[in-house]
Amino acid sequence: MAAACCAALAAAGSVLLPNTSAYNQTQASYWSLQESSLSPSCFAQPQTAQQAANLITILTSHQACSTTDFAIKCQTHAPAAGFANIAGGVTIDITGLNSISVSEDHSIAYVGAGNSWLDVYAYLDPYNKSVAGGRNGAVGVGGLTIGGGISYFSPQVGWTCDTVQNFEVVLASGELVNANATSNPDLYRALKGGKNNFGLVTRFDFATVDITRILGGNLVNDIADRAAVFAAFADFTTAPDYDVHASWVLSTIFNATSKAWTLLNVPVYTLPDTRPLVYEQLYAVPNISDNLALTELHVLANQTATPPLNWGMGTATYGVSTAFLNEIFDIVNATIYDFNLPGGVAWSIAFEPLPTVFLAPGAGKNVLGTTPADGNQMIFLTSPFWTDSSADAEVHAKTEEILTKVNAAAEKAGLLRQFEYANYADYSQQPFEGYGQSNLEFLLQTSKQYDPNGMFQKRVPGGFKLPGGQWW
Question: Which is one Pfam family of this protein (predicted)?
């Protein structure tokens, strides 16, 4: 039936079939080997929002498509198999939805959902404007935004989804609608963290932020100096007067072959200041290298592409203390030090501030359940990457072991929080349950209202589905 469905979809636009160069090129564009290992019966590639609506209409109503499941592909930075691809079904590749424009006063950026953030920044930088988008330019606009979204500008304006003024979205019925504060406001709120459970978003209208040159780059420390760096990070994250122009990703990276740890800092300041006082404690720690410099956002976001690898993710949210950061490192080191694979495996163990100023703009307006009342926190991300695809189960088990042990330590210390950032979550996690019961009930009710037959629950199996959503 999938082949017949692909033939029906061809009437609505471009369809790529197996054993063609265009199909193979699209298949090879996935970030993770887990995703590129899946082979859909075809890729459907809408070039306009109306073509996307036509595709959904056919998938909903055409007899040949009645049993065909589908996936939605943007820039493919979700590593888990099936989140943006599908075996034997149809993958809708929305990268052709790549228009970008700005309002006359440059206060709103109209961004097609298939763009990468690099495309967006390159377009907006000449206007001295930007949006609160992803930090790696290769990441897609669509997936990051509907999962929340962390930006260099988040301490100023909140989650990426908080800056969306309007979603253009195709419903399961094939109807193309707008969701904003006055039109479909419940759908508008649900899309701010609700992932792919409500429709196919074709365009985002973002509020812009002012920007000129910013400070960015890397600062590397010896792992022996981790206690001083951890102390600086904890003080930075819990500062009562958090500097809203400052962000910091702290990563401890382990190579299982060499048994070597690297301590990598990415401090970014969104004003043209070459030596912000907010990083003074970090600067005081001896470093191995420091290439921090003023640059433009589209240059900073243009990161070197990684070769095809297997990737994993797992996340949690914690309160912050220097002692706990040191304890996390000791737990992770003991868990993975003697674990290796043919071809090697590396681990990035990252910490990102989640201060109260970050959470204030969207509190009660998105569905993430995060509020300033939660206090200053940090997001924890464990991300392994490896070459041997046969070892997926082993690495996944080790990732779960890390999370189990660190969560237990956090709970004992009174630092475990319920929120799990969906864009960083392992496929076995349930991030919606961390949004809180009232938000989960709202998401279920909104899904029932806009997708009464549960099409995006049942026929789009990839991504995180709403738990308890068996009301169809």
Answer: FAD_binding_4
Distance CA 110, CA 373 (A): 33
Q: What is the pTM of this model?
A: 0.97
In the numeric block, the tokens 């912000």 are attached to 276
Quote the CA–CA distance of 238 and 358 in Å, as a whole number.
12
Distance CA 407, CA 203 (A): 37
- pLDDT at residue number 13: 83
The candidate with the shortest Cα–Cα distance to 72, out of 115, 31, 111, 43, is 43
pLDDT computed for residue 11 by the predictor? 84
| Burial class of residue 227, CB neighbours in 10 A (0-12, 13-18, 19+) | middle
pLDDT, position 469:
54
HSE (CB half, 13 Å, CA atoms) of 46? 30
Q: Which two tokens stand for residue 4?
A: 């017949």
Looking at every residue in the chain, the average pLDDT score rounds to 96
Is residue 256 within 8 A of residue 346, CB to CB? The reply is yes
Region for residue 384 given its phi and psi (left: phi exceeds 0; alpha: psi -120 to 50; beta: otherwise): beta
pLDDT in tens, 271-305: 999 999 999 999 999 999 999 999 999 999 999 88
Q: Which residue from 384, 388, 324, 376 is spatially nearest to 352, judged by alpha carbons?
A: 376
Nearest to 100 by CA among 62, 80, 126, 81: 126
Q: Closest Cα to residue 290, out of 211, 380, 381, 222?
A: 222
pLDDT value of position 194: 98
Domains (range + CATH), the chain: 2-96 (3.30.43.10), 100-211+437-455 (3.30.465.10), 214-432 (3.40.462.20)
| Nearest-angstrom CA–CA distance, 113 and 100 | 10
Contact status, residue 135 vs residue 148, Cβ threshold 8 Å: no
- The segments of the chain whose pLDDT lies below 70 read 469-472
Q: What is the pLDDT of residue 470?
A: 54
